Amino acid sequence: MPKDSADVLATIVAERVPVTMLAEVVMELGLVPDFEDQRRLAPADPYEARRVLARLAVDAAERRDAVRPFAQMFCRKLFQDSDLYARLYEFTQTPDGSELAQEAALVLRARTLRLPDLRSRLFDWEQWICVVAAGQENGQTKLGTGVLIGPDLVLTAYHNVRSHIDMGAERNPAPGPLLAIFDHLYGEPVTDPQVLHPDCVSVPFRKEGWLVACCEDWPGDGTVLYPDKGQEEELRRKLDFAVLRLAEPIGRQARNINIGGARRRWLRLVPSSGTLRHEDRIIIPQHPGGSPQRIDFGRFSETATQCDTSGTRLRYTTETAKGTSGAPCFNQQFEFVGLHNASFEPGGLPVANQAIHLQHILDHLKDTAFAKELLSTAAPLPSILWKVSSDPKSNRVILGRRPLLNWIEQAAAENPASRANRIYAAVCRGEGDPGRSTTGFGKSFTIEILRAARRDKGERFVVLGTKEERAPTSVADVIQSIADQLSIPAEALEGMPQRPTLGASGSSGDMDKLNLWATDEVPAWFKGVLGRHREVRVDLREEARAEMAHLKEFARPVPESVRALAESAAPTFEVRSRWNILWIILDQITDFRMPDEVRNLFAGLTGGKLPETTMPAELRRLRWLFLGYVPDFLVKDDVTPELLDPMEVGVDAMLATLEAHAAALDKPLDEGQAVMAKACIDSYLSEEALAPYVGNPNRRLAKLQSFVSSIPPKIMSKVSS
């Protein structure tokens, strides 16, 4: 990467990426093993510290040839921040100019849609889109795109798997392996399906019974401008699609089986609600030529579509490439409208690209047993989070902690039902007792659980009271620390209400002024700071002008809707949000005495003396986790408490974690496996040599985590087999 590009990326990260998010990405990619030590050694000035740490991370990413995944992870984690997403996007692409020519329009085009809505859809789609790899008799592999439409069903173009089908039936013997590759988001294009990026999930199709339904392709598809009657009939009969059954129901499994949580699910086949109009957007997630998944945008062409008198093909200007056949096409309401299958090149002249209209595929399937199977298959409920790290070697499993997990689920609602759904507190048994240590009770582990539960949700986190972020000792410390972690610029804090000056006597009147300042005045000012930083006012006219300039640069037609917006006399503004929820965690509270002014500030920010219904909307976006302290400025019913005591973590909690692991695989433990697991746990806990560990509350939890993460293969291998 050229030095000026590295400088630009480092500047973007320093100015816009929260340092806690930077640390998380650096850790996940393994870029700087001692990054936390580097944070502690960074300059005292927070802005200079961010600059130094950003440069350190970018240089490490460049040395490891990981700049692309480095930028992509920020785009995923901070997807609601439209401007940051746009600035980072160029670094998520390969340096190949031809690919950039196709892909660079993504941000500019997509920004005329509501980007957070679009990007949240992209994260759904990306888990359902796969590479379909069909081995050929000559040893080569034909690559196409497919989409998961049921727990174990993939829809793709017939011609992608034609070599594996004979007269509408499975060819036996098959010419080669047939498999689907999911989560191919990073790395190089697939050339050998046996050699994949570590994040890819490869699932073979069934050895027998894999062909559920199909309709062959027409060799002349896309080559005829105006079909005659015979060709018209061929187009109606030959819809170029195939439905294939996987060897396992990946749609029912957790998206990340190594931690549990949200299941992959699938794209439901339902008719679109409206009619496509000329120049409506068409969005295609795809794997061209086996490349990492990308999104292409274009415009529906009513003129080219009307050339197809069979009414079965949709045509559009989207730039697609070889290997895209089988990709789903979505309209601008994000509805599935067609299955890409060819380019439209009558007489050899490229005019548009085309898809099979989804409605005709549905009509073809409507009376089949397969259609009834799809209609009767309900989307699965999420599995329980059972681990915080996706590293298979990690022992960071979750034992118990149901109060926390339930609270996170309730707190994730944008408008929580009660204050207790916004505020959580964890305390350890014996907390504060003279000579009693609560090390190893799992208090700080709460932060890891929260981050794992809210991974890739586009939310922000602020952590106070760690080794890197010392516990604040004044109101100014709290505000500055939150601002640093949210990358709020220094000038935004210049209007902070001045702290009242106390007289020498410290009269009650002076104290009242100080309390009012911390409880009311600073929170009222800070909610404005948060709101102004969270919201971004965007001029859609300027975006349209940038898009039009880009289209002209690459000699592409400019849609009338874009031109009209770009040439409008007055600007059109839209307000976008960088995040919806902000999680604020106070850790190691018992390690210091919280000053009264800090306590009063937290009381004001949490809404301690206000009815929940009258809380300012900006402050209701805050979620609070107090670790080691139940706030005494709130009434009991305003907090969700959890008591942490490793001595109460036993057989039931350990078995529940194993059951959650099995559920993430969609292979629940049967009665025999559960009995075997329980017996194994009982035996382990009764070992005399372990008494110094499992009988010590400071050492018990870590020992049990280690055991559960390495449970004997005779149990989990049966589940996974």
Mean pLDDT: 88
Q: Beta-strand percentage?
A: 15-25%
CATH architectural arrangement of the largest domain = Beta Barrel
Give the strand line-up of the largest sheet. Answer: 7-6-1-2-3-9-8
Q: Based on CA inertia axes, which overall geometry fits?
A: globular
CATH fold description of the largest domain: Thrombin, subunit H
Helix % is 25-40%
Briefly note the structural class of the backbone: alpha+beta
How many discrete structural domains? 4
Q: Largest sheet, described in full?
A: 7 strands, antiparallel
* Tally of helical runs: 26
Instruction: Classify the oligomer.
Output: single chain
N-to-C CA distance = 44 Å
The CATH class label of the largest domain is Mainly Beta
Q: Ranges with pLDDT <50 over ≥5 residues?
A: 96-114
Q: Gyration radius, to the nearest Å? A: 28 Å
Verbal overview:
This protein is α+β, with helices and mostly antiparallel strands. It has four domains: 3-95; 126-376, Thrombin, subunit H (Beta Barrel); 402-501 and 518-534 and 579-646, Rossmann fold, CATH 3.40.50.300; 536-577, no CATH class. The chain is 38% helix and 16% strand. The protein contains 26 helices and 22 strands. Helix 1 packs across helix 4 (46-63) and helix 18 (540-553) crosses helix 19 (560-566). The longest helix has 27 residues, at 508-534.
